[in-house]
Design a protein that fits this description.
Number of helices: 4
Largest sheet: 4 strands, antiparallel
CATH architecture of the largest domain: Orthogonal Bundle
Distance between the termini: 33 Å
Oligomer: single chain
Number of domains: 2
CATH topology of the largest domain: Topoisomerase I, Chain A, domain 4
Order of helices and strands: HEEEEHEEHH
Radius of gyration: 21 Å
């Protein structure tokens, strides 16, 4: 369940807000000798200005594939290539785009909640198997079931808070 929260946290970092953040493109898959690797493994990414990202490839030969990956991504960014580095100007978000991003945030939070619920169901099934095999008494089964439910509720609540913070960040002008 903790892993599901961490996955959601890193997922939400990649959703664009009004500010430039290297996390926006770090995990972007780039084709590198027939394999896809995260952009962070091929280039140094920095944000020298609030609305600008600079991608400096470690190997100048990779600049074309990095540029293609950025261009074909759903980030809506246009790469500017000067032969040595790629500049990404982060445009201001329109109200409509902000609403779309909030929908994306809500969908990802719900996916995280589903993952926690799946873990809860799996843990309860394990407890039920233990009870059926007489490894634990019935009282322990119900006690464990309540504990698992409390744990799941705590993680779902944490995911809700993460989503709420990200929604506020996206809607901030």
């Amino acid at each position: 369940m903790q892993k599901a929260v961490e996955v959601l946290r890193t997922d939400l970092m990649s959703i664009r807000t009004g500010r430039a953040s290297p996390a926006l493109v770090q995990r972007l898959p780039v084709e590198y000798y027939g394999m896809y690797v995260p952009l962070a493994q091929l280039a140094a990414i920095s944000a020298p200005e609030p609305r600008l990202l600079v991608v400096r490839p470690f190997n100048q030969g990779d600049i074309g594939s990095i540029e293609r990956a950025i261009h074909t991504s759903d980030l809506g960014l246009t790469p500017n290539n000067d032969g040595k580095l790629i500049r990404l100007n982060i445009p201001r978000l329109t109200e409509e785009r902000r609403r779309d991003l909030v929908k994306v945030v809500k969908r990802r939070v719900e996916e995280g909640r589903v993952a926690v619920r799946n873990q809860r169901r799996s843990a309860i099934e394990d407890l039920r198997d233990f009870e059926d095999e007489k490894l634990i008494p019935e009282d322990d089964f119900y006690r464990g079931k309540d504990e698992i439910q409390k744990l799941a509720d705590r993680f779902i609540k944490e995911m809700g808070k993460l989503g709420q913070r990200k929604e506020e960040e996206v809607m901030e002008i």
